[in-house]
Amino acid sequence: MPQMLLTNARIATMVQSKGYGLIEAGAIALEAGKIAWVGPEMDIPPLYQEVERHNLAGRLVTPALIDCHTHLVFGGNRAQEFEMRLNGASYEELARAGGGILSTVRATRAASEAELLAEALPRVDALIAEGVALVEIKSGYGLDHETELKMLRVARQIARERPIEVRTSFLGAHAVPPEYEGRAEAYISEICLPALHAAHAEGLVDAVDGFCEGIAFQPAQIARVFESAKALGLPVKLHAEQLSNLGGAKLAARFGALSADHIEYIDEAGVVDMAKAGTVATLLPGAFYTLRETQMPPIEMLRKHGVPMAVASDANPGSSPLTSILLAMNMACTLFRLTPAEALAGTTRHAARALGAHDRGAVMAGQRADLAVWDVSHPAELAYRIGFNPLHRRIYGGVF
């Protein structure tokens, strides 16, 4: 028998390719942590008539939200670099001067696991408070063997400390550390690939990521990392075409990547390859906003070729110090011109696909019972409001 029945709800099922899939005056039966049935309240099957009920008083129910691209585990902050950018320094100039990612590398290397966990938990709590039940967390601020593993251990610990599922991505190919300056190939061989194998052996890796950019790694170098990932049976994803077009999205598609992320500078050939490969385009408006970029992702081109678009916070200390998935949705609409329905799909159904999490992201029978109950009358309000959190209750694994 189902554990409970949620009644008197407006349900945005998000099962359709377009729109919200709204069910007015709907009900949802939950059993053993999964959705057992969903439909109009007037059609509740006899089997569910006598179970415990929770009247949601007409509130909106959506799938719990998913943040599919974050860097939540790191040491220190980069507020001073924020100030420098406002005084005219570019992201690339800061990176080449030893700031950017490398400044966070120094702070992260110096921090203990306990310190990194203590710093990360408030950021995770902010996402949970906005209805997030699944979050991806990357390494990439260690760039040495032990710190990369340290970050991934902390990410795993977060899931034991908080009611949230964490998917980890090994991002050893994030930047070339100072001790390997000018020797990117040696870094890949001597640090990145051995650390990947060690992290995999310890059960710390769910996917493998890389940063394909002029200030990071070339496509051929990323391909070496992806080949190792595939040999280990791990899916891949990629930071691609954020600052220029090196063909990263095409590379990601060639390896059947779960997602290619940022993609402001992608061309149509890259979009076509992503469509053929089923690779999700993960849009990161927080970085676009923070860096005051002007090159937008080609939204119409992605629509034209049917590439699913996820939306994520890209929470990180430098280019996107954002821990609000609701604000990311608003930014995706306001800055990139997504529709509110696309933004919600981007943080539910498509975000799940970007993580290979096929058992969530929609309100339908058989899916994991991760739900968000909102004090709003229409799902468009989730992307419309700025600085306002209308979450009434988050249901995680069927726990009300």
Q: Helix count, per DSSP? A: 15
How many beta strands in the DSSP annotation? 15
Mean pLDDT: 96
For the largest beta-sheet, the strand count, sense and barrel status come to: 8 strands, parallel
Rounded to an integer in angstroms, the radius of gyration calculated over CA atoms is 21 Å
Going by helix content, strand content and strand pairing, the class is alpha/beta
The separation of the N and C termini measures 17 Å
Residue share in helix: 25-40%
**How do the helices and strands follow one another from N- to C-terminus?**
EEEEEEHHHHEHEHEHEHEHEHHEHHHEHE
Outline the low-pLDDT stretches.
none
Which strand order does the major sheet show?
6-7-8-9-10-11-12-13
Residue share in β-strands: 15-25%
Q: Which overall shape is indicated by the principal axes computed on the Cα atoms?
A: globular
Keywords:
single chain, 400 residues, alpha/beta, globular
Write the layout of secondary structure elements.
Elements: E1 4-12, E2 22-31, E3 34-40, E4 53-55, E5 60-63, E6 65-67, H1 79-86, H2 91-96, H3 101-110, H4 113-128, E7 132-138, H5 145-161, E8 165-173, H6 184-201, E9 207-212, H7 219-231, E10 237-240, H8 248-254, E11 259-262, H9 268-277, E12 280-283, H10 285-290, H11 299-304, E13 309-311, H12 325-336, H13 340-346, H14 349-354, E14 371-374, H15 381-384, E15 391-395
Parallel strand pairs: 1-4, 1-5, 6-7, 7-8, 8-9, 9-10, 10-11, 11-12, 12-13
Antiparallel strand pairs: 1-2, 2-3, 5-14, 14-15
